[in-house]
Structure formats: structure tokens, C-alpha cells
Amino acid sequence: MKLKVNGKEELVDDGLTILGLLEKKGIKPMLVVVEHNFEVPERENWGNIKLAESDNLEIVKFIGGG
Amino acid sequence: MLDQNQVLRYSRQLILNEFGYEAQEKLLKSKVLVVGAGGLGSPVLYYLAAAGVGTLGVVDFDVVGISNLQRQVLHFTDDLGRKKVDSAEEKLKKVNPDVKIVKYPCRLNIDNIEEIIGEYDVVIDAVDNFPARFLISDCCYFMKKPLIEGASVGFDGILMTIIPGVTPCYRCLYPMPPQDGVVPTCSDTGIMGMITGTIGSLQALEAIKVITGIGETLSGRILTFDGLGLNFREIKWSKKKNCPLCGENPTVKELVEYEIKCKLKTFE
Q1: pLDDT, tens digit (0-9, with 9 covering 90-100), for B108-160
Q2: B38 to A58: CB separation less than 8 angstroms, yes or no
Q3: Interface size between A and B, measured as CB pairs under 8 A
Q4: CATH number of A2-61, picked from 3.40.1000.20, 1.10.530.10, 3.10.20.30, 3.40.50.720
Q5: Cβ neighbours of residue A23 under 8 Å, at least 6 residues apart?
Q6: In which region does residue B149 sit, left (phi positive, over 0), alpha (psi from -120 to 50) or beta (all else)?
Q7: In angstroms, rounded to a whole number, what is the distance separating the alpha carbons of residues B238 and B243?
Q8: Of B126, B183, B238, the CB nearest to A66
Q9: What global pTM score does this model have?
Q10: Are strands B55-59 and B122-125 parallel, antiparallel or unpaired?
Q11: Which fold has domain B10-236?
Q12: Of B1, B138, B182, B196, which has the fewest beta carbons less than 10 angstroms from its beta carbon?
């Protein structure tokens, strides 16, 4: 299926979860927050949320420095 | 009324159609609190002083160290060991003697933050750690103060303009602080000076827009900046229904002070 991740289209396997997507991209879940279809789901649910065709995802790093 | 000197000093912004005389007068009457006089705070303070913000509050407990100088452009080699608020005040007064500087050489905490923030129209978050960011953003929400959130690390930056009751709040993006010690900080992974310079300049721009009402602020959007690929991205952002601070059933109802645990890399 096709997803939009940080503004770019990506092809991924059907049935992938948010957590699965992060793992596939080699992103440590604790370092980011995820916006899924313009909402920020609870971190605890990332493993249960199955992604669907043309979902919109924004993976935003924790940035706190200055 | 602007005097003759002020008309000359601010002439390049007075002749802007979108800015002009009225905006300048608003700016001269405004009071802005800048928390942190480091990598982000330096350009924020410099541009706001130069543009003619009436009163600038500067909060920083720290002294100038040699590793600060690569990005904290208000501080010079001669300032090593000086309090950052003193070093900042000296430079800002030289840029624009009209600006009133109020110094707070302390850390913001549960006991002093409300009194300090209460004095200002707009708050700019230019600190270097998450506990302070959550404290400042919660307090601005409770006190209904506009907050310009900016942060950077490595080659990355992020910017949000938060208007309490109108836009999403900081916790709509980051509901809780990250786990202790897992997120890189400037002192352990590094930072390019131009990144804090970019984000700090944008924070100052957002502040003058909030004060004067010109243009469209970033509210309801998040701007992310990748300096290495040179990409700015805008993320649509909405209020989180179950946000712990501004959601329907908030769990954060008073100020919280998260523990600061610094993970410092030592060079041996």
C-alpha cells in the first residue's frame, strides 16, 4: 500500500502498524512522536494501529535543545 | 509618538507596507520574555532589541563558557565566566539604548515562574532542556500568554507558535517529556550555530507578528527544519482531544517540575 510519510509517498507492506513502520525505518520509537492522519495517537497504541492505503504520517523527532 | 531619532533608526521597517508606524509603536510598548540567552536566545534577543521591542526580560542562570561561543552570538571571548544575562545586556544596550532590559539570573521553577511570566505580553522559549520547556509551556497555557516555541539539535530545528485557547498546545504534540537520557542534547550530540541562528531568527519574527498583528503566524502548524538537506516542512497540527493539558479531560491541572537529568558526554 501507499503511504505519505513526512510528505513523501512510500510503498510498504499491507498490515503494517505504526510501530512496524518505525522499526522498518530504523527509528527508535522513544525518540519521536507520530502524527497519524493529523492526530497524535497515544504511544502505547502504536503497536495496534494498522496503517491503511493513503494514510498520512508525520514522524517528528523530540527536539529540545537550544 | 516616535521621535526623530527613532524614525531614522527604524526607517527600514517603518517604510514596509505591512509593518509601518503603528506596528512600531506597538513594538515599543511591548514586553517580551526570552527564557535562555544561549544559541536560540542570542539571535532572538539581538533582533528584538534591534527592532525596538520596549522591554526584554532575559532569563539565564548560566555563565559564558568557551564551548558556547561557536553559536551563542551575543557572547564574546572576553565574556568567558561572566553571567550570560550581564553579557547579553551589555550587547543589547549597545545595539539599542532605548530598550529596557530586565535580568533574571536564575532558573525558572514552580515558585518563581508565574511572577516572572506575569510581567510580559509574549514568552519565547529558548531553553536547552525538556523539563524547562514543559514548565514554560504549561505556565503560559495557564496564564494565557502567547508562547513562541523553538528548539534545535544537530542540524534539526522545530518551531511552533502557541496561542492558549486558540491553537494546539505544546502537549498536543509532545504529551509527556521523553524518557530520561534517551533524547540527544546539544552537549552530547552537537549543534551547528547556523541552526540555532535560523530557528532563533524565526522565533523573533513570530514574536513581532504576534505583538503587532501583521501577517499570519505559524499557529496551528508546526515548522520543521532539516539543515543538512535544507528542507523546511510544514505539518498540519490540530488540538488533541485527549491532550493532558488542553484536552477535554486534562490531567495536568497545575505546574509540574520534571527532574532534570543531564546526560553529559565526557571526553577522555
Answers
A1: 999 999 999 999 999 999 999 999 999 999 999 999 999 999 999 999 999 99
A2: no
A3: 78
A4: 3.10.20.30
A5: none
A6: beta
A7: 11
A8: B126
A9: 0.94
A10: unpaired
A11: Rossmann fold (3.40.50)
A12: B1
